[in-house]
Amino acid sequence: PVIKEGDQEKIDEEKAIGMIRHAIDTGVNYIDTAYYYHNGESEPLVGKALQNGYREKTYLATKCPVWALKEEADFEKILDDQLAKLQTDHIDFYLLHALSKESFENGVKKLNLTAHMEKAREAGKIRYLGFSFHDTLETFKDIVDYYPWDFCQIQYNYVNTEYQAGREGLQYAASKGMGVVIMEPLLGGRLADPAPHHRDVFPMEKTPVEWTLDFLWDQKEVSLLLSGMSSPQQVEDNLTYAARSSAGMLTDEERQIFVKAKEIFDNMALVRCTKCAYCMPCPAGIDIPGTFAVYNKVATDGMNKAKEEYEQLKVKADACLRCRKCEHVCPQHIGISMLMTEIAEKFE
User: Fold this and answer.
1) How far is 202 from 260, CA to CA, in rounded Å?
2) Confidence check: pLDDT of 51 > 90
3) 151-198: per-residue pLDDT in tens?
4) Cβ-Cβ contacts under 8 Å for 284 (sequence gap 6 or more)
């Protein structure tokens, strides 16, 4: 949780500490942070939250910012700084943060970071050695094979099954005996509140959030997942969902739901356009299916990338004449003229 101070956002310390301690009291035992989270404010906050006996109830995880290391001695300097901020004498799970091919070659290898991690473990400063990851499956396997890691952390959800490490990477790491921590289970919140046609794929007895988390808990290779929570209600919801979870919890029929949900998200995340093109040609010259495809990329690829593609369209959404000829023939009954106004405003 954050509070506004002018144009700046600051952690709502009292509320955040209360949420962390309530989660621990109710069974959460793994707390994840990192050196640069919240502009460096996260580790000190977590350190405060874990006082008064909470540190002893918790596995603490934080990360070494590999990109910030200029020489080998920087590893221990930053680690000691983290221990001080976290008010602890050891970190249970220590990760090399956000490894890619470049940081693996020019950081991990050149600065002998695994050797420094081992030295820190021998000194009792860290216990389990791992890394978090953002790159290709090939690079992921190279890093896994480089060193006998205890665990890793990957981005994974029902949309990202073939993205970065993906399902194959998950299974590969698990086959090596590694624990696998999942980040971005809700894809930065984008899977928490899907568009109506996307939400309709999921049976009503659970929320889209619970279904999305169950997709992960169902897989035996998943050791645990990280879900960012910014309100007490989100803490309560996640505690409830976790209490109902287990590996192998879903039926084969239920697993097929996620295949359909991924298909919808990948192709028509915001607009239920199947690209049948019955709406074409448009009297105003708009490529209606093409415009919707670009708009859907706001959900899948982010606003900046979608806007770049939108700028390449010869005729933009604001050219819509609102004649509604397209709407009379659309099999999906999409309110095309209204959406064109929305899209034009979104990309302005």
Assistant:
1) 10
2) yes
3) 999 999 999 999 999 999 999 999 999 999 999 999 888 899 888 888
4) 315, 319, 320, 321, 323
**pLDDT at residue number 274:** 78
Per-residue pLDDT, 5: 63
Q: Are strands 2-5 and 8-11 parallel, antiparallel or unpaired?
A: antiparallel
Mean pLDDT of the chain: 94
DSSP readout, 77-93?
HHHHHHHHHHT-S-EEE
Q: Give residues with Cβ within 8 angstroms of 132, minimum separation 6.
A: 63, 95, 96, 97, 98, 99, 152, 153, 154, 181, 183
**Under 8 Å between Cβ of 140 and 164:** yes
CA atoms within 13 A on the CB side of 71: 2
Residue found under tokens 């007895």 = 205
3-class SS shares of the chain: helix, strand, coil, % to 5? 50, 15, 40
Q: Are 1 and 231 in contact (CB under 8 A)?
A: yes
- Token readout for 67 is 């990109």
Structure tokens at 161: 């099954």
Residue by residue, DSSP assigns 174-218 as: HHTT-EEEEE-TTTTTTTTS--HHHHTTS-TTS-HHHHHHHHHHT
| Burial letters 146-171, b for 16+ CB under 10 A, else e | ebebebbbbbbbbbbeebbbbbebbe
Looking up tokens 């949309």 gives: 159
Q: Which two tokens stand for residue 120?
A: 């820190």
**Residue located via tokens 């994840």:** 32
CA distances from 48 to 52, 59, 133, 134, 276 (A): 9, 15, 28, 30, 57
